[in-house]
Amino acid sequence: MPTLAVIGSQWGDEGKGKITDYLAEDADMVVRYQGGANAGHTIKVGDEVFALHILPSGIIREGVTSVIGNGVVIDCEELLVEMEAIRKTGRSGSGLIISDRANVVLPYHRLLDGAEERSRGSKGVGTTGRGIGPCYSDKVARAGIRMGDLQDEAYLRERLDMIFPLKERLANALGTKLEQDRFAILRSLLEYGRIFGPYVRDTSVIVNSAIEQGAKVLFEGAQGTMLDIDHGTYPYVTSSSCTAGGICSGAGVPPSAIGDVVGVTKAYTTRVGAGPFVTELHDEMGARLQSVGGEFGTTTGRPRRCGWLDLVVVRHACRLSGVTSLAMTKVDVLNDIPVIKVCVAYDIDGEIVQDFPGSVTKLARAKPVYEEVDGWAGWGGDTAAMCRKGYSALPRNLRKFMDIITTNTGTPIGIISLGKGRDETIDLRKRRWST
Ligand code: GDP
Ligand code: IMO
Ligand code: MG
């Protein structure tokens, strides 16, 4: 059963796009299973840079089947724009398939996302404004529309007749007005049904049968563990299950289909939007990480908040997803820092805490307990040479930094990423795919 899962172990933007693309080299299928166009996965291939929001990262590699699973919420307009952009690069994008069970992000979801955020005032979540929360809310409230419905005019009419008046009332209550009436929405949904019809399938059947036939299937997570609806910093989270558990429901595969799990971990921590962040730095070091790391959101362009690596967070992620190895990214961003700090526990009201607390008010009182490691400044940063020579040629202090991570998470580092490109990667894994 050669499958691999890629999940984010922090608050997103860990470099999942780069790692998924790297691991997809010999994959047959790449499957997105949660989230929507709130994701922003950046991939650099030579001089080309792709920023994918809704398409699986496999779309860049010809011959790979890219699957948008039932757990994803689909913004058809965004999907169309991305497919066009991919075609313009000379790639066919023909390997795409879309679940008939995936819910559709409708125009009023985006509008209500903004209105709900405004109504929260200073306590806003800082969402991406892509309609994610309202769409998943409708899915759970059984008031959604799914990709498989888009060619059935009578059923769409019936659904919109029932759902739309409620949305109008909600919009009014939030002091806003829906931009499109139900007939305009119906027309555009039917048009999307025509465009995407050929791609819409029962993806659970297709993915499971690929796995049974021994195909190499890679599950690509979006967001990160700390944005998970259950296990993240609730309510400052997204609305889907970002841990490996989300793969089963979001791709329609059994737990036994999940093989090795790669936890993508940035060598420091970032977060976009509001919510607790124990190791956040408000000083020059935070500003340095932001500028050297280019920490600006792929989806919204917002500056990302920055801080030291938090291993309480990564440990939490490893336990929740059964992470079998870590892919440590953006190590090069730390290159010239004389002393690097790593948070190994929290001090909350004088008590040393190892497990990530569920309460945001407790987190607000948490102080990081740091271990320090001397940096590898003066190393020269010749990443190409390092990537050729591998682990043993890495600076001693970088290896110490890696030891602290492994000791505190109980998880080995399988991949070290030292730059955006595919070749700026050191692969220490003993096997590429679980068997
Ligand atoms: P994702 O959402 O987890 O896919 O991450 P994003 O693409 O939003 O953000 C990660 C950013 O870091 C992207 O601009 C990547 O090109 C870049 N990146 C990934 N790995 C590395 C690395 O090892 N070093 C550097 N300097 N940049 C990296
Ligand atoms: P990738 O896949 C970083 C954050 C938003 C906000 C919260 C809720 O690129 O790692 P939402 O629009 O989902 O309702 O916003 O979640 N967020 C992300 N932060 N990377 C992402 O995706 C994110 N997707 C959502 O900033 O705090
Ligand atoms: Mg991102």
Describe the secondary structure blueprint for this structure:
Blueprint: E1 3-8, H1 16-23, E2 29-32, E3 41-45, E4 48-52, E5 65-68, E6 73-74, H2 76-88, E7 96-99, E8 103-104, H3 107-120, H4 132-140, H5 153-173, H6 182-196, E9 200-201, H7 203-212, E10 217-220, H8 245-251, E11 260-266, E12 269-271, H9 284-292, E13 305-307, E14 309-310, H10 311-321, E15 325-329, E16 339-348, E17 351-353, H11 360-365, E18 367-374, H12 383-389, H13 396-409, E19 413-417, E20 425-427
Parallel strand pairs: 1-10, 1-11, 2-5, 2-10, 5-7, 6-8, 7-9, 11-15, 14-16, 15-19
Antiparallel strand pairs: 3-4, 12-13, 16-17, 16-18, 19-20
Helix pairs in contact: 3-4, 5-6
The chain binds guanosine-5'-diphosphate, 6-O-phosphoryl inosine monophosphate (IMO) and magnesium ion.
Notes on the protein architecture:
The protein has helices spanning 16-23, 76-88, 107-120, 132-140, 153-173, 182-196, 203-212, 245-251, 284-292, 311-321, 360-365, 383-389, 396-409, and strands at residues 3-8, 29-32, 41-45, 48-52, 65-68, 73-74, 96-99, 103-104, 200-201, 217-220, 260-266, 269-271, 305-307, 309-310, 325-329, 339-348, 351-353, 367-374, 413-417, 425-427. It is an alpha/beta fold. It folds into 2 domains: 3-92 and 202-427, Adenylosuccinate Synthetase, subunit A, domain 3 (Adenylosuccinate Synthetase, Chain A, domain 3, Alpha-Beta Complex); 103-198, Orthogonal Bundle (Adenylosuccinate Synthetase, subunit A, domain 2). It has a 10-stranded mixed sheet, sandwiched between helices. A hairpin with a 2-residue loop joins strand 16 (339-348) and strand 17 (351-353). Helix 3 (107-120) packs across helix 4 (132-140) and helix 5 (153-173) crosses helix 6. The chain binds guanosine-5'-diphosphate, 6-O-phosphoryl inosine monophosphate and magnesium ion. 6-O-phosphoryl inosine monophosphate (IMO) is lined by residues 8, 11-13, 38-41, 125-128, 130, 132-133, 222-224, 227, 238-239, 272-273, 298.
